[in-house]
């Protein structure tokens, strides 16, 4: 693939924390609509890479282009505005606001940012209600995040990420702590939004979910990319097996 076929083209990403190299010269490319699995042992740099891509952390080297445009100097808000969305490993809802109101801020922000016409109160309501419904939270519109179960909280986190209407969603460990059937529910939601054209970087430890979801797999170990390819080839790679067994 050439740069112009890619929704995300990150090259040579390096990130240090003091003297510690958390990411060393990592390349990551994603095609529009692609489902990319990103795996690696704990501490390998997956969340750090997410933070660098989405603008929560400044990189120490490399370049990132998104939708054909250099985004290195853009804030996380500006990146979100261009269509680069994320969900957090630890969900961060507004705890004092109802689920409906939790969607208001990202919704209004994204529409304004794209130069859309101002949303009316009715339109905000309608779209928030629709999104929460899509994520199975239609019965809890007026509840507070604190009333939600763990899987519902994950759904809220995804609905909030989708409210900015991303073309690429980075999902950082959306399945941690969920039961087998809850994992399947979240997977189905991610597949549904991917079917509508949203590319997904799926960061996950549960291998059955990674294999079910991913069209391509990238492996990070100790801040370096050690494999990138078809999932069945990647999981058979000796270095990948060694990295996991050596944990
Ligand atoms: P993963 O998400 O793959 O589990 P992380 O990206 O969270 O890994 O962390 C990668 C490494 O960077 C770990 O060794 C972690 O301790 C370190 N690290 C992450 N964030 C910081 C930070 N803000 N300051 C110092 N070290 C950090
Ligand atoms: Mg992490």
Features:
Rossmann fold; 247 residues; six-stranded mixed beta sheet; four-stranded antiparallel beta sheet; alpha/beta; 24% strand; single chain; 9 helices; globular; binds adenosine-5'-diphosphate
Walkthrough of the structure:
InterPro entries: AAA+_ATPase, ABC_AA/LPS_Transport, ABC_transporter-like_ATP-bd, BCA_ABC_TP_C, P-loop_NTPase. One of its GO terms (molecular function) is ATP binding. This is ABC transporter ATP-binding protein. Involved in beta-(1-->2)glucan export. Transmembrane domains (TMD) form a pore in the inner membrane and the ATP-binding domain (NBD) is responsible for energy generation. The protein has 247 residues and is α/β, with parallel strands linked by helices. It contains nine helices and ten strands. A hairpin with a 2-residue loop joins strand 4 and strand 5. The longest helix is centred in the C-terminal third of the chain and has 16 residues. The mean pLDDT is 93. Adenosine-5'-diphosphate binds next to helix 1.
Beta-strand fraction estimate: 15-25%
Sheet having the most strands: 6 strands, mixed
CATH architecture name: 3-Layer(aba) Sandwich
Number of domains: 1
Question: What's the number of extended β-strand segments?
Answer: 10
Helix % is 25-40%
Widest β-sheet, arrangement of strands: 6-7-8-3-9-10
By CATH reckoning, the class would read Alpha Beta
**Mean pLDDT rating:** 93
CATH homologous superfamily, by name?
Answer: P-loop containing nucleotide triphosphate hydrolases
Rounded Rg: 18 Å
